[in-house]
Specification:
Helix content: 40-55%
Number of helices: 16
Strand content: 15-25%
CATH topology of the largest domain: Alpha-Beta Plaits
Oligomer: single chain
Structural class: alpha+beta
Number of domains: 4
Shape: rod-shaped
CATH superfamily of the largest domain: Reverse transcriptase/Diguanylate cyclase domain
Distance between the termini: 83 Å
Number of strands: 16
Radius of gyration: 44 Å
């Protein structure tokens, strides 16, 4: 920066005299202008050197001269250069006294010194200084750009900044916790009420206090960080501020870069899961590659489960399921989750247990009782060809069948493997009308209005499920075994079926399964 003491040594100022404001010679000069009117407040800029012959103020009284200097002080000018022997023979005493009181350097130049010469020397010095500043800015930009392009994180930016300015630098988060601490950092303190803010651009704000220089870096609409430079009453140079500003910009850039990388990776992550679960046209190598990207090995065993909150309006149930599943299975298996809808989530589970299906089924039924509000469908083991779409369909089918075949209070975890003949019926009904395959004798009886028909059908179903064992059926239904026998005899009499015929008994059993299947709305 160019200081007033530097101005005094310029060729055009060789015959100048400093009359007042010695302490102000270390003020920074930012511009030079001619003032020949008393209404300077509307146009004068801070850090301006004012050149004047006092033409407009030559008749001012002592007090008016003092007032003029106080008004100039309020505009924060750097120096007041007065050319004498044009309109005033010497600098008035009120101007000199005002310069002393306000700390404004009052400099006298002779009539032989031209305004043009002084202006040229000052502007040339300011131009050279600005050129140095731009070159330094470019050097800092290139330095921090190199760090960023090398893939370094904000820690490297902070360390480089500390090396450049040789001051403690600390990066704080929104909660004023030190994200990247300095070895000699001081506690974070920012009083925005008493320290004037300097807005550098849309995302950088600077606060210059006696003990610290603080940059507020707005990362996005909600998140910000604080770059805190301890100064301990030692003013920063312009170059040091430039280095801080550029470092802050690259911390912002680093955040945006990392956020973009994270979003791209997350997008690829979701695409990999979606491809595995839904794209039937993927080759084995493509499926293997996607597994590897997800951190899984094609040499392990896999299951797919689908969970939903059972049409509940409580969206928290699925979050609780996610959390509990992760905590309970952490370290035992690897989980990859994929949210299908707001109330449904799919999970790929990688493991190596011998009875992985049974083990998972047992764990889930223990973890998530029906009152938890979650229903889960479990696939069979993914085949060696890594046919994940098939496993996804199995889990989906198990979930849909289970929710229809059982009430919420009875059961909420459904394994595709354990659904038995319902798997076959579910797939068949997609192609044919299952009613046409029901036993005609049973179907005819179903069309009658027998008073105990529902009770007798239930007894017949349990009787066939229990392999025609009277006592087991009676125990399940809490009736006497002779009651079971009488009901079976009555059914044979009414329908003409023969349960002692294995083929006909199987046909009746399948027909009852179809009946239950259709009653469930499948």
């Amino acid at each position: 920066m160019i200081l007033i003491k530097d101005i005094l040594t310029m060729p055009s100022m060789k015959e100048s005299h400093l009359l007042a404001g010695l302490e102000g010679i270390y003020k920074e000069a930012g511009n030079i202008s001619v003032m020949e009117t008393p209404d300077f407040e509307s146009w004068v800029q801070p850090k301006t050197i004012l050149l004047t012959s006092l033409y407009a103020t030559q008749d001012f009284s002592y007090n008016a001269q003092l007032d003029l200097m106080r008004r100039l002080a309020r505009t924060d000018i750097s120096a007041f250069i007065i050319k004498t022997e044009a309109y005033v023979k010497k600098v008035p005493q009120g101007i000199i006294e005002g310069g002393k009181q306000c700390g404004i350097p009052v400099i006298q130049i002779s009539k032989h010194t031209s305004y043009n010469a002084v202006t040229y020397d000052v502007m040339q010095a300011l131009f050279n200084e600005e050129n140095k500043t731009l070159n330094y800015y470019r050097a800092m930009y290139e330095k921090f750009m190199t760090i960023s392009l090398d893939g370094e994180e904000s820690e490297s930016i902070i360390q480089s900044l500390q090396d450049i300015i040789n001051r403690p630098v600390t990066l704080y988060d929104d909660s004023e916790n030190a994200v990247i601490p300095s070895q000699h950092s001081v506690p974070f303190q920012l009083d925005t009420d008493t320290v004037r803010a300097e807005s550098l651009n849309d995302y950088l704000m600077a606060y210059d206090s006696p003990k610290a220089y603080t940059m507020i870096i707005r990362l996005d609409e909600l998140k910000k960080m604080y770059l805190f430079v301890s100064t301990q009453k030692q003013n920063l140079t312009n170059n040091e501020k430039i280095a801080i500003h550029v470092a802050a910009s690259f911390i912002k850039l680093n955040y945006v870069k990392n956020l973009t990388i994270k979003e791209k990776r997350q997008q690829k992550y979701l695409q990999s899961i979606e491809g595995l679960l839904h794209h039937t046209g993927l080759s084995f190598h493509e499926r293997e590659s996607r597994l590897a990207f997800l951190g899984m090995s094609s040499q392990k065993k896999f299951l797919v489960i689908i969970a939903d909150n059972n049409s509940s309006s409580d969206s928290k149930a699925l979050h609780h399921f996610d959390d509990r599943l992760t905590l309970h299975l952490y370290g035992k298996v690897k989980l990859i989750k994929f949210r299908i809808q707001e109330n449904r989530i799919a999970v790929i589970i990688e493991g190596s247990a011998r009875d992985m299906e049974k083990d998972l089924y047992h764990r889930l039924t223990t973890l998530f009782t029906p009152d938890f509000g979650i229903c889960v469908g479990i696939s069979e083991l993914v085949d060696p060809a890594l046919n994940f779409p098939k496993a996804y369909t199995q889990a989906d089918d198990a979930l849909e069948m289970g929710k229809h075949l059982y009430t919420e209070q009875e059961k909420n975890i459904f394994s595709h493997m354990e659904l038995g003949i319902h798997r076959t019926l579910y797939n068949l009904q997609k192609k044919i009308a299952l009613e046409s395959y029901m036993n005609p004798k049973l179907k005819k009886w179903l069309d009658t209005d027998h008073s105990n028909k529902d009770e007798m059908l239930t007894t017949l179903m349990v009787f066939l499920d229990e392999k025609q064992h009277y006592k087991n059926t009676a125990d399940k239904l809490h009736i006497h075994w002779k009651t079971v026998k009488n009901r079976m005899l009555k059914i044979e009499e009414l329908t003409g079926i023969h349960l002692n015929n294995p083929e006909e008994a199987l046909d009746i059993h399948v027909s009852l399964k179809i009946l239950g299947f259709k009653k469930a709305g499948l």
